[in-house]
Write a structure and sequence with these properties.
Layout (H helix, E strand, L loop, with lengths): L1 H12 L12 H6 L10 H9 L5 H4 L5 H8 L1 H9 L5 E9 L5 E7 L4 E4 L14 E6 L4 E6 L1 E2 L4 E2 L3 E5 L4 E4 L11 E5 L2 E5 L13 E5 L4 E5 L10 E5 L2 E5 L12 E5 L4 E4 L2 H6 L2 E6 L2 E6 L6 E5 L4 E4 L1 E2 L12 E5 L2 E5 L5 E10 L5 E10 L8 E10 L1
Parallel strand pairs: 22-26
Antiparallel strand pairs: 1-2, 1-27, 2-3, 4-5, 5-8, 6-7, 8-9, 10-11, 11-12, 12-13, 14-15, 15-16, 16-17, 18-19, 19-20, 20-21, 23-24, 24-25, 25-26
């Protein structure tokens, strides 16, 4: 609190240099007559609140009705984005090893602090691995789709959404088709759900549908050429890449497809891409990486021009100290690998040129240990949100 008051004082001193907002209407002044912070103009106080880090913005809503009104206003989160105050957080969907209890946690990668999210409005019992998750990072929106009831093995069409600005879950329009063990991804602010198991879990479906968060509606798009389930997927630009993925010890060659959202078409995945996709994927910018599921878990990057994969240089992945399964996401030049027990391995990816060699991608790893209270949690997926 002392740091916050000091911060407010600094803003007050700089108040004369700041642009003053348009004069509010008389009825707005009456409604908001209670000052946000006594002794400070509301314009300065609003900027103080905007600098509160996630999830403190939501926690301080109980301070006063004026704070609650200001923070819950839709323009509050937009202002944070406009002023570039939103920062990336790692949101991890995990389940308890023995009870299968579902839980979302958010990690502040700068401080290493974890925050537990409210429980999702989903009816138990469910199979944690059967859900698909996607996010629109810059909008601070998280989407959890489908899933399967573990008692009846029935796939579900449900969709629940989370907003970082309010720290709340809500039930959205369900999918047109029940799905479990399927792929989902975000392209252009819309969510795509592809394939998976349908009403009968043993049967795969080839239907694909698109969700518009602004309209809360679903529409059917081009079908997959083959129905796939239990696979990995990644979005690079306007394309979603879907693969069955290799299963160690690589006893069969996987199938794969590529969806072009701009053209609304599917095509076969190239041979080099699908046969080299030997682990869990992660995207940084326009580059597709894979952390291999065997050996030393080395990381490699896909070369579109050569249709091949290249291993990264640098330090070895600390596979001996981290337990599988892994959930991976990437943002701002770093890759976050969440392991069982929610320990996080952070990989910094950079370019380096050695003597008489071309530039090559390198990665250096560092482990962030999670609190002991997370020891029995297993990650299912992880997503990046700006909050």
């Amino acid at each position: 609190m002392i740091r916050f008051v000091t911060f407010c004082d600094e803003f007050a001193e700089a108040g004369s240099k700041m642009m003053i907002k348009e004069e509010k209407k008389p009825e707005e002044k009456t409604q908001n007559s209670e000052p946000l912070i006594p002794g400070l103009p509301d314009e300065i106080a609003e900027h103080c609140l905007l600098h509160l880090p996630y999830p403190n913005q939501v926690l301080v809503r109980s301070v006063s009705s004026s704070w609650n009104r200001a923070i819950t206003d839709p323009s509050f989160f937009l202002s944070k984005k406009t002023l570039f105050l939103s920062l990336p957080y790692i949101f991890v969907f995990a389940f308890h090893r023995s009870t299968a209890k579902l839980q979302w946690q958010a990690l502040d990668p700068r401080s290493g602090r974890w925050f537990v999210l409210p429980p999702m409005p989903i009816m138990n019992p469910v199979c944690p691995a059967s859900f698909a998750c996607a996010s629109v990072p810059r909008q601070g929106s998280l989407f959890v789709l489908g899933g399967m009831r573990s008692d009846t093995e029935a796939s579900q069409p449900t969709l629940v959404t989370y907003r970082a600005g309010t720290n709340r879950w809500s039930v959205a329009c369900p999918m047109q088709y029940p799905r479990s063990f399927f792929a989902a991804g975000s392209i252009g602010g819309k969510i795509f759900a592809a394939g998976g198991s349908g009403t009968v879990v043993s049967e795969t479906v080839s239907t694909v549908e698109c969700y518009d968060p602004a309209k809360d509606t679903w529409m059917t798009v081009a079908k997959m050429r083959n129905g796939l389930s239990r696979y990995d997927a990644a979005v690079v630009g306007e394309k979603m890449y879907v693969t069955e993925g290799w299963t160690w010890p690589f006893s069969y060659s996987p199938r794969g497809g590529v969806y072009n959202a701009e053209k609304d078409t599917w095509e076969e995945m190239s041979v080099g891409m699908r046969e080299g996709w030997t682990g869990i994927s992660v995207v940084l910018g326009d580059r597709l990486f894979v952390i291999t599921e065997h050996g030393s878990c080395r990381m490699k990057v896909y070369d579109h021009e050569m249709d091949t994969w290249h291993y990264l240089g640098g330090g070895e992945f600390p596979c001996e100290t981290l337990k599988k399964p892994f959930a991976v996401c990437g943002v701002e030049g770093k890759i976050y690998v969440v392991s069982s027990g929610l320990d996080v391995c952070v990989g910094r990816v950079f370019e380096r040129r050695e003597e008489k060699e071309e530039e090559k991608l390198w990665v250096e790893w560092e482990v962030m240990r999670a609190p002991m209270v997370f020891n029995d949690f297993v990650p299912s997926t992880s997503q990046v949100l700006y909050a």
